[in-house]
Amino acid sequence: MQLYDGVWRDSPPAQEEIGADGRFRRIESPLREIIEKDPMARYAAEAGRYQLWVAWVCPWAGRTLAVRALKGLEGVVDVNYALPGLGSQGWVYEQGPDGERPVGGYPLHKLYVEHDKTFTGKVTVPTLWDRKTRRIVNNESAEIIRMLNSAFDDLTGNALDLYPAALRADIERWNDLIYATLNNGVYRAGFAGSQEAYEEAAHGVFDTLERMEQHLTVQRYLAGEYCTEADWRAFVTLVRFDTAYHGAFRCNLRRIEDYPALSGYLRELYQWPGIAQTVRLDAIKRGYYELVDRHRIVAIGPALDLERPHGREGLPGRGIWTNGN
Predict the structure, then answer these.
(1) Catalytic residues
(2) Domain boundary among 128, 156, 184
(3) What are 87-108's pLDDT values in tens digits?
């Protein structure tokens, strides 16, 4: 599903990203500008100026919602949530960018055409929209969460830092592994067009989960004592795993529930103030099963309890790094 020279073309999900060898290769996001603290910058940090377009089902959008909550940006950066389902028009919203409510909803691809009448590429979430210039700033989640982490600090006074300089080497080491083999790995398994491609991706997923399990048995967080960006990038896949990827994407060797340290870690992150409100397990399950099942049948399980005690208190941990301490 993407635009070609500004014209919308409906196609099966991920069709353009599956090669002749059956392997899924994610297309890089093309819109990569940034919001800055400098009031003279083209995209200056201002309250109420920017809007995130997201979908509950999407883990990449989930990253941005998690960081928005952690940084207390609910009153600074607005959010528009997609309607359930991914139909012939792609992501569709109840409201358009100016609050209009068109009959049948507002397809996200119209926003991309407003940004560039000749745009060619995927229409994806999250998308960060600037109301002032009527432009898309960025649609790469990894870069959006970095902006949310620091660009608005002078407005909010929030000193939490998910990407502290002292921990960046460890953060990036985990990011590189988890993105390739877990965040994207579940998609490589789910969208695989051959048995070989599927098994290669699925085994990579579980190799990484095992490595994380061993690490988190003795460490509270991925980068050690501090909860960082790396943890939240992992969280959005872990929280969807048993509900969606285990069944819909055939990542069914084990569940997160089968890993003592990982399952406790997942529950700790889920129970962090503000995070549970960024997760809709019902929408996640429905979205993935409808994506892969032509009859749109959604599994009745699993029954998950992410509110039960996580048991991680005995491990050394200092929460999130705070600048100035």
Answers:
(1) 58, 187
(2) 156
(3) 899 999 999 999 999 999 999 9
